[in-house]
Amino acid sequence: MADEIRQIQVLLGPYRDHRLTVSAADADAAINNHWAVDPFHVAAPDEEPHPPLSDEERQAALEAATTWAQTQWDTAQQVPPPDPPPPEGTPITRAKRERDMKPDESSGNYATRDADDRKKR
Q1: Residue 40 DSSP label
Q2: Rounded to whole angstroms, how far apart are CA atoms 102 and 109?
Q3: What is the rounded distance in angstroms from the CA atom of residue 29 to the CA atom of residue 34?
Q4: Which of 53, 29, 59, 27 minimizes the C-alpha distance to 41?
Q5: Strand order in the sheet with 36-37
Q6: Residues spanned by the domain of 54
Q7: String of b and e for 91-110 (b: at least 16 CB within 10 Å)?
Q8: Quick one: which of 16, 27, 47, 110 has the most CB atoms within 10 Å?
Q9: Is 8 helix (H, G, I), strand (E, B) or coil?
């Protein structure tokens, strides 16, 4: 079954001044990150208006909007998401690991079980 969908009015980012239909989770995240509003929300008379955002909050909202838009574009183009970073405390390992295996010192022939069994006889 499909997720619940809602409309948002975008305030910042690549979709600025557009009304988008998104999942309820994306709508809540956009509203909570201050880059979109609910276009159907009517403020009650006793409800305090939202205080203006500081420069840091505005920059964080713009980054959140841009990140969300990039994720949507990548999904539409079927670009796989990047690998998540390792958890904190994980030791850093070299990207290229040395192999623990050593090549067979024989003449390059591949030894099978049957060949090993024949040598024992």
Answers
A1: T
A2: 14
A3: 9
A4: 27
A5: 19-23, 5-10, 36-37
A6: 5-76
A7: eeeeeeeeeeeeeeeeeeee
A8: 27
A9: strand
Residue 32 lies in a domain: yes
Distance CA 12, CA 94 (A): 40
Does any domain span residue 82? no
**1-10, 44-53, 110-119: segment of lowest average pLDDT:** 110-119
* 100 φψ region: left (φ > 0), alpha (ψ -120 to 50), beta (else): alpha
Phi-psi region of 98 (alpha: psi -120 to 50; beta: other; left: phi over 0): beta
**Count of structural domains, the chain:** 1
Main-chain phi, psi angles of 15, to 5 degrees: -100, 25
In the chain, the amino acid numbered 78 is Q
pTM score of the predicted model: 0.63
Is it the case that residue 53 has pLDDT exceeding 60?
yes
